[in-house]
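Next comes the chain:
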Amino acid sequence: MSDTLTHPLVRAYLASVDTQAAVLSDDRRRDLLADLREHIESVLPQGADDAAVQQALDQLGTPREIAAAAIAEEPGVDPLQPQSSARTTLTLGMMVLAAPFFEVLGVGLVVAVLAAVRIWRSPAWTRRDKRLGILCAFSPLLVIPAAAALFVLAGGLGPEELIGILLIAMVIPLAGAIRLGRSAARLRPHAA
């Protein structure tokens, strides 16, 4: 790898293309980035200054344009699109808050289903992120009974244990919500 590819402008450019092309398969995205690296190495001399690097990158097009062209070549793949932070917050809040309500017959399940539908229909996440979010939203269905069984085996199930179970059940949806929130936030600065 040449020092051209380690230049901060090149690294930032390639990282941005990678983010913008997140909806592509891993293999297709790797191929796209490899082609870009090869092209950049061929047009930039060793030790190029910032102006030369920026000019070469400008001639390639913006990361959004590069990713959009690659996405357009893939049948059935739609580009990621930002959504409002309020919509994202509502969806992720539903995902996390469903956990404590799984104890109330049906309420938590309904909230988790609504969160899952909102996650799946959102254009802000890749299919992989969507699957992760839906698994996290429904994780209390397994976590609550498993944690309750452990507490019963350990000596009893009182009010403190029930609160502990609810807190434990919220950990996975919370971690998933943080991950999805970060993914959605990465798109917002590019939405101009």
